[in-house]
Design goal:
InterPro entries: DinB/YfiT-like, MST-like. With 168 residues, the protein is mainly alpha-helical. It contains six helices and two strands, in the order H-H-H-H-H-E-E-H. Helix 1 packs parallel to helix 6 and helix 3 runs antiparallel to helix 6.
């Protein structure tokens, strides 16, 4: 990861500062999923599902856009260029590279922060299956989802780098 954990600097911060710090830290962990991987390693599937390091990060681009760009800002998935079904967000195309997916993620994240800045934690958003729900809930949900996917990425990275070296 390229910067310090923000959550450590917000031990006595406001609720919003703490939520934003934990979200930031988990976003950095997602970026770390691809850190130091070759294109082949990033696409390597080690489980039966479509999950690989690159697809994890591509999926969280979708997640950021669904919750902030669509649910909070009211844009359509078509307008955002994201699939209607979450399952489709795991599919990789030949054009997806470590660099391009990370750039998409950083852009989605920056835009999500800009969108959220205009709202209070109690402001309501609409989701295609849930809602109304608060921005506070979106922050908590994103922290949970990104942490889970970063953990998946950690395990895949361990398999990629050390898979043949563990004892029996």
């Amino acid at each position: 990861m390229t910067d310090d954990y923000r959550s450590e600097a917000t031990l006595t911060g406001s609720e919003r500062e703490q939520l934003e710090a934990f979200l930031h830290d988990n976003r950095q962990a997602i970026v770390g999923v691809l850190e130091g991987l070759t294109e082949e390693q990033a696409r390597r599937r080690l489980v039966p599902s479509l999950t690989c390091p690159l697809s994890i990060v591509k999926h969280v681009v979708f997640v950021e856009k669904v919750w902030f760009h669509a649910s909070l800002a009211g844009r359509t998935r078509g307008e955002l260029g994201i699939p209607e079904a979450a399952e489709e967000s795991w599919y990789l195309t030949p054009d997806d590279t470590v660099e391009s997916v990370l750039a998409s993620y950083r852009l989605a994240w920056a835009e999500a922060d800009e969108i959220a800045a205009a709202y209070s934690l109690d402001d309501l958003a609409l989701h295609n299956r849930r809602g109304p729900l608060t921005l506070r809930w979106i922050y908590a949900h994103l922290i949970e989802e990104l942490a889970r996917h970063a953990g998946h990425g950690d395990i895949l990275r361990e398999q990629i780098f050390h898979g043949d070296n563990f004892g029996s």
